[in-house]
């Protein structure tokens, strides 16, 4: 099993995976959802143009996923293709095809844990490779791990708690008739736009209230991102978006596009990049080719921020979905009437042929 198109972000091929009672063998594709920092196993049917699917547990039908946010420890050996991850009630063991792939995944997992504010993750290299590769290797019996976990304490994230409570708020944002209590030092740090307001560049600095034209939904999601507490707009790919029926997938994509526009407008570059990754992560799982075409048209609209990873990935999706586009009159009409999209796809196909 291989990815049937090029992706703008890393994927890994796993030979074996075991977690609790679940075990699988054979070449399996592992990807990261950048919004939730969850990892999941995906596959494509043999035909052309279909959406990706997530591997599920035979007993429950739930997606097979594991998260960097909840991990307690991760270990590797530089001469082994194995990685082990410890959770509170289970251990995940995976075997890659070589030690280099394993180490690349190890680094990606550590980075994902950091992005998800998992400050307690213990990362270490196992000294005895033979012991590490034994089938019964148990991280809870590693003395280093036990000592570290005994010293671990829960860390309450500072900004998310202030976002929930509104405590020490000194500024108000109004959008869609709803008032949001915010903290000027947080917005000052994250955004050039708000920095200009707080430095006296706008009259709103005196009133301590600013009205924004975006919807309540968009500003609420934007503040969740600023305060490092992503919620429904960037919920888990594997337990949220993937499970939606085709007709319900368009709305969360539109929400993400609105969030991307707002992040660009208010100079929130980190959030802009994060949302762009969330959109690209979801592209392979869009079930309706018409939704893919509509998303592509929106991405190439002149009012949409130009983000390379978005444009490259959506044109790659159009190339992959082309068998379904050309055989459906409604979808083909939608696609062929967008000059910008046609131009981008033709250039992409030419580059792909050369590649």
From TrEMBL:
<feature type="domain" description="BTB">
    <location>
        <begin position="169"/>
        <end position="235"/>
    </location>
</feature>
<dbReference type="InterPro" id="IPR000210">
    <property type="entry name" value="BTB/POZ_dom"/>
</dbReference>
<dbReference type="Pfam" id="PF00651">
    <property type="entry name" value="BTB"/>
</dbReference>
<dbReference type="InterPro" id="IPR011333">
    <property type="entry name" value="SKP1/BTB/POZ_sf"/>
</dbReference>
<protein>
    <recommendedName>
        <fullName>BTB domain-containing protein</fullName>
    </recommendedName>
</protein>
């Amino acid at each position: 099993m291989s990815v049937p198109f090029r992706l703008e972000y890393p994927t890994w091929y796993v030979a074996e995976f075991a977690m609790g009672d679940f075990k699988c063998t054979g070449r399996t594709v592992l990807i990261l959802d950048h919004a939730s920092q969850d990892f999941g196993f995906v596959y494509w049917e043999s035909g052309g143009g279909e959406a990706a699917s997530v591997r599920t547990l035979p007993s429950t039908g739930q997606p097979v996923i594991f998260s960097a946010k909840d991990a307690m420890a991760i270990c590797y050996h530089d001469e082994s293709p194995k990685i082990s991850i410890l959770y509170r009630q289970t251990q995940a063991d995976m075997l890659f095809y070589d030690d280099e792939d394993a180490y690349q995944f190890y680094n990606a997992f550590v980075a994902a844990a950091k992005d998800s504010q998992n400050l307690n993750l213990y990362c270490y290299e196992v000294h005895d490779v033979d012991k590490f590769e034994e089938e019964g290797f148990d991280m809870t019996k590693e003395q280093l791990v036990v000592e570290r976990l005994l010293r671990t304490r829960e860390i309450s994230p500072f900004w998310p708690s202030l976002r929930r409570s509104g405590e020490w708020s000194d500024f108000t944002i109004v959008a869609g008739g709803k008032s949001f209590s915010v903290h000027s030092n947080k917005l000052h740090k994250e955004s050039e736009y708000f920095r200009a307001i707080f430095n006296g560049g706008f009259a709103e600095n005196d009133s301590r209230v600013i009205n924004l034209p975006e919807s309540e939904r968009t500003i609420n999601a934007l503040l969740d991102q600023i305060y490092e507490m992503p919620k429904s707009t960037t919920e888990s790919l594997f337990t949220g978006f993937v499970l939606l029926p085709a007709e319900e997938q368009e709305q969360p994509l539109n929400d993400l596009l609105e969030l991307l526009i707002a992040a660009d407008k208010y100079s929130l570059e980190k959030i802009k990049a994060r949302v762009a990754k969330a959109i690209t992560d979801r592209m392979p799982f869009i079930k309706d080719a018409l939704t893919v075409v509509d998303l592509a048209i929106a991405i190439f609209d002149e009012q949409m921020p130009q983000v390379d990873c978005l444009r490259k990935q959506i044109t790659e999706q159009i190339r992959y979905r082309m068998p379904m586009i050309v055989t459906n009159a409604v979808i083909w009409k939608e696609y062929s009437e967008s000059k910008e999209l046609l131009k981008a796809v033709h250039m992409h196909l030419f580059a792909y042929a050369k590649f």
